């Protein structure tokens, strides 16, 4: 039987995907992009420095080139543009924390995907709440810079100039609010996050000297009243923490508190109405299940129906910083 080489190649790429992610994880563990900052070294030089056999190091660095993290010219290795910007310790948008989160948290729970699929119940959470592990203070800190990048891209994609104060529900470290306020000098923000996590947000806000414009408030949207006095609301990477009934209730509360002309923005791993793309968002549905979250990522169609039920009009959707999407509606 004649085999289709492209199909076999695709199959091998799928089953070896964990190998590529492991190469990236180890590059960061060994701090190789940081060692290569602005420099070019041979495998022999790095092998001696890191006490690794030269042959093993050469093959490992070649693998780093194959996944587009490193470059190679003659016998010397150096950082790709992405690595120089995002994988060097101390870089403004260093993403090593996000990689650590995937290596130490996500990678482990995906090993139990089969059991997770069999045991997941809609609307329920594990006896150990996912917030304790994947959405607690440490996990949020690891993902701060990636959220900051999303905030700056959101600022480019949506014009906040006519709004004065944004309510950032489940705002984590406050990264999105920080980026938006830095992008729009007249904008203020309220970061509403669980009480056990809110100090992390307050610390990041203080570091950026935005205390006067970004307020941090501890609370649980399922138990506590939302803060007052905002004309825009942001729910970023948030909707899977509760079931549909709770989310619709929250959107109605936001609608009631917004003034006429106010906007509510849902942002995150929103999937197409086909439920087949973007691939990252489709896979993140399984991440939710692995963490035994109450819900999974939803489609534009579903989020639009929730916003409409809450009362929002003129609902629109778009992508920004692919595969991240947003959908938003206004209060008339």
The overall strand count is 10
Query: What summary fits the major beta sheet?
Result: 7 strands, mixed
Identify the strand order in the major beta sheet. Answer: 6-5-4-7-8-10-9
The CATH class of the largest domain: Alpha Beta
Q: How far apart are the termini?
A: 64 Å
Number of helices: 16
What is the string of SSEs from the N terminus onward?
HHHEHHEEHHHHHHEHEHEEHEHHEE
Backbone shape: globular
Description:
The protein has 332 residues and is α/β, with parallel strands linked by helices. The chain has two domains: 5-85, Winged helix-like DNA-binding domain superfamily/Winged helix DNA-binding domain (Arc Repressor Mutant, subunit A, Orthogonal Bundle), CATH 1.10.10; 96-330, Vaccinia Virus protein VP39 (Rossmann fold), CATH 3.40.50. 47% of the residues lie in helices and 15% in strands. The chain contains 16 helices and ten strands. Strands 6-5-4-7-8-10-9 form a seven-stranded mixed sheet, with helices on both faces. A three-stranded antiparallel sheet has the order 1-3-2. Strand 4 (165-169), helix 12 and strand 5 (188-193) form a beta-alpha-beta unit. Helix 11 (144-157) runs parallel beside helix 12 and helix 14 (244-257) crosses helix 16 (300-310). The longest helix has 15 residues, at 96-110. It is globular. The N and C termini lie far apart (64 Å).
Outline:
With 332 residues, the chain is α/β, with parallel strands linked by helices.
């Amino acid at each position: 039987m004649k085999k289709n080489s492209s199909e076999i190649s695709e199959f091998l790429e799928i089953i070896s995907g964990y190998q590529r992610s492991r190469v990236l994880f180890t590059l960061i563990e060994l701090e190789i992009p940081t060692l290569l900052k602005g420099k070019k070294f041979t495998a022999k030089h790095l092998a001696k420095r890191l006490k690794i056999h030269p042959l093993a190091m050469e093959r490992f660095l070649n693998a780093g080139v194959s996944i587009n993290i490193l470059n190679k010219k003659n016998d010397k290795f150096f950082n790709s543009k992405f690595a120089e910007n995002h994988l060097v310790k101390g870089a403004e948008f260093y993403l090593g924390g996000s990689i650590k989160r995937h290596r130490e948290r996500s990678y482990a729970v995906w090993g139990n995907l089969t059991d997770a699929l069999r045991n997941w119940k809609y609307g329920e959470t594990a006896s150990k709440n996912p917030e304790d592990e994947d959405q607690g203070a440490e996990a949020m800190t690891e993902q701060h810079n990636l959220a900051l990048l999303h905030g700056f891209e959101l600022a480019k994609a949506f014009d906040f100039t006519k709004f004065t104060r944004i309510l950032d529900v489940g705002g984590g470290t406050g990264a999105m609010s920080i980026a938006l306020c830095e992008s729009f000098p007249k904008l203020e923000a309220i970061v509403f996050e669980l009480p056990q996590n809110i100090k992390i947000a307050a610390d990041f806000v203080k570091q950026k000297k935005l205390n006067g414009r970004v307020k941090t408030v501890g609370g649980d949207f399922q138990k506590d009243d939302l803060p007052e006095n905002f004309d825009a609301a942001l729910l970023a990477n948030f909707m899977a923490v509760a079931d549909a009934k709770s989310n619709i209730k929250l959107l109605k509360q936001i609608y009631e508190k917004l003034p006429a002309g106010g906007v509510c923005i849902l942002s995150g791993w929103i999937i197409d109405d086909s439920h087949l793309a973007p691939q990252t968002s489709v896979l993140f549905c399984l991440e939710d299940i692995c963490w035994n979250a109450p819900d999974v990522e939803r489609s534009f169609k579903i989020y639009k129906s929730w916003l409409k039920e809450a009362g929002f009009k003129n609902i629109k959707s778009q992508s920004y910083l692919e595969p991240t999407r947003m959908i938003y509606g206004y209060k008339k």
